Amino acid sequence: MSDSVNIRELNDLIASKSNFVSMITQGMDQTIVGQKHLVDSLLIALLANGHVLLEGVPGLAKTLAIKTLASLIDAKYSRIQFTPDLLPADVVGTMVYSAKQEKFEVRRGPVFANFVLADEINRAPAKVQSALLEAMQERQVTIGKETFKLDDPFLVLATQNPIEQEGTYPLPEAQVDRFLIKVVIGYPNKEEEKLIIRQNIKAEKREVSPLITPADIVEVRKIVQQIYVDEKIERYIVDIVFATRFPADYGLNDLTSIISFGASPRASISLALASRAYAFLKGRGYVIPEDVRAVCHDVMRHRIGLSYEAEANNIVADEVISEILDKIAVP
Q1: How many other CB atoms sit within 10 Å of the CB of residue 68?
Q2: Residue ranges in the chain whose pLDDT is less than 50
Q3: 164 and 291 belong to one structural domain
Q4: What pTM was computed for the model?
Q5: Distances (CA, A) of 91 to 54, 80, 164, 177, 261
Q6: Are residues 175 and 310 located together in one domain of the fold?
Q7: Which of 57, 108, 251, 266 could form a disulfide with 112 if both were Cys (CB 3.0 to 4.6 A apart)?
């Protein structure tokens, strides 16, 4: 009974903070047309303290969405354009000799911000991509002998173009796994496209003003961390992840030749965290199976390795995830 009382209190607490979600959504709507899934995904990552990998063709407002979100939160924003000649020091910073002080001083790189846009991350070589690993996982950066804590909230939002693959470097599995979600963005519909044209041919430029602060995000995250995840939901998450590793155990024999490697334990953690954030967006103090299913594709699509057979038959990770979700019993 105490649990039900706590959940009732939590529901009331979430309801009192629901204006936070509507404020950000309305603010995003001022500059972004459509792309509701993208906006929701950015909010989920923000609430779950995770990083986002955005994939889509150029011109779908990926960069604009991230910049707008940073402006609404009054957060420090930096953009790193990943290119083949980029160096790790260009990302995290380096030691610079000061003739005046007669000693080496730390010059911090653009990673020292609340929102870091890693634009076209797959254009830079692995040594540059790996420079982000410590920042993404440990929320800290080591330059020389000194280690610096990064600001909270700290989010890496990386974009990659799925079309032009010449001269690109596939992201290392260790780094891909550190993204909470991978969001694939599609084209707008006809009505949205007309609205985009109208907005962009106007002379005036829409500016967004800060609505909340980074401290507000930290406070709301504390509420999200209290959202109840039942043992049945935990078991459901574990079954989904294990079905990617041992599909035959779940009657998915046709997937054994399709999947080369399954999702890591980080997938289970990310699925639980993203489900809680999604429950918060829906105004609930507890996670239901629909929350898990709603975030499953974004959380899992970049964590499943597909075999050559899958690629030869044009089978994508989303189809594998859908088949698993159809097979696993919903609690």
Answers
A1: 23
A2: 1-5
A3: no
A4: 0.87
A5: 19, 7, 23, 20, 31
A6: no
A7: 108
